[in-house]
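Appendix B. One record, verbatim.
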Amino acid sequence: MITDIVANLSVREAGNPAGDYAVSLASLLDAHITGIAIAFDPTIPMSGMGYLPVDAIEEQRRENEAAARAAIDRFAAATQRACVSSEPLMLSTSLASAGKEFGRIARSFDLAIVDQAKPDGGALEAIISVSTMFESGRPVIIVPYIQRGPLKLNRAMVCWDGSRAAARAVADAMPLLERTANVEVVIVSNEPGKQGEIEGADIGQNLARHGIKVEVNRILRGELDVADALLSHSADSGADYIVMGGYGHSRLREFVLGGVTRKILQSMPVPAFMSH
């Protein structure tokens, strides 16, 4: 069950896709949601270390706190409209520590919801999404920066390769999959299978035994790589969200993502439910 959700609230004025999506999900699941807005510590340029006036540092701090308070106010208004149980929190931390801190906090929740990084400068969102996936030990939904609508459960695409991470993602996403009208399990292959051979049949049977309307399809990637094949199929099939394992490892606090995960995170057209 998913009864306790945490969402990272964007402190940017131009919308809050993850927060809005989280509210709609909490409303569906009758879950409690905690919205966390980060008030960043002042950033002091290296060239000005020791020379930046104290007044300028304090002004930057006040502006960052005001942005976090505004994000909390937007979140409070959204949860009130949706009649969702909620709690807003402000986290004060540095840019360098934000991802690790949010990932640590997410360990105490059933699910974390964060924003996708924008291609023109979303380093913070990228750090938070990847840190949450690998540091929290919990599933995470990454919401595209282009997302404008609430949660939809008409069609889900499960990316299946038989791996541990994929199995974990399916299990974690079960509360959503059981509420989704149509679920497609997709296997990307280099070549056609043998007559009568159906990869992914076992996971399809498992989902069906949960009362889920499921179909299992193998798609040939052709000249595409696996990520592009999945992204293309998700668009063609009209999937409302993707379920997949998050691949990669951490070393010295630097995250190295698997190629498929990295490309999905960069180009995803719909929310992605990921587990590591």
